[in-house]
């Protein structure tokens, strides 16, 4: 794996975050316009459907009328979700604040690593689950958090736990977590827009005029288009959260702790039981050091050379660390 410096990685992640911020409104607008065109097509007469310029003009008018409201709703949703992401993720993972007095061992490990890297110490959370997993989250120094499961705290020795914490701190240092949060928020917004479009279609007045004109084919087309774009967008978000980031975080932990074998040993133990019961959302699952869902919950397409997997094969990560 080609070495990439910390500053380069930070710059790349900041660039990708900005790119997502720019491209997502464009994708929403494209979807809304396509919906307006199909909506107009489905409600038009046969003669009007043959006049493509009329259809385009009608779609333009409808788009201009409804786009500002949709974009305003998306912007409000993004602002709320972006700044409330900590509460949302904590609720989705069942993580709670871990006080220093409750576990001085964990705080000492996190604090010592942060001091060695000149980092401000993040918050520390615990997930009340006996399985082994961990993740980092947050958008800035005030919200950066390292969350560890009860199981990983109890079942790893100090060297292994330090290596896992180093992995999560590398995600924070490289700004991976900010990009992950942006992508999670965007996926949620897109799901909302797609649902709004489908409900509007089904409950609009023209849909209730099916006794006058059969729009079954167009209805199916619209549903398929919305579903296809939704699936494509989800895949693009997976690519934005590249599996290479896990390799980079592994390398960062090895560099930080000077003990790659400790992380390899930790990953081997984690691979035996990473299943956090509270985590049911795949977008949140990609934050973890290893996918926290049960095997049957993982993407059915992940077997195609792991193309659609949220994490690289843990066996390969262990192999690379053992050869570090």
Can you walk through the features of this model?
- This protein is mainly alpha-helical and 324 residues long.
- It has two domains: 6-79 and 186-240, no CATH class; 89-176 and 249-322, 2-Layer Sandwich (Zincin-like), CATH 3.30.2010.10.
- Helices cover 66% and strands 5% of the residues.
- It has helices at residues 6-43, 46-50, 52-83, 85-93, 104-117, 150-155, 158-173, 176-203, 216-240, 244-257, 260-272, 282-285, 314-322; strands spanning 95-97, 123-127, 134-137, 145-149.
- It has a four-stranded mixed sheet with strand order 1-2-4-3, sandwiched between helices.
- A hairpin with a 7-residue loop joins strand 3 and strand 4.
- The longest helix is centred in the first third of the chain and has 38 residues, at 6-43.
- The radius of gyration is 23 Å and the shape is elongated.
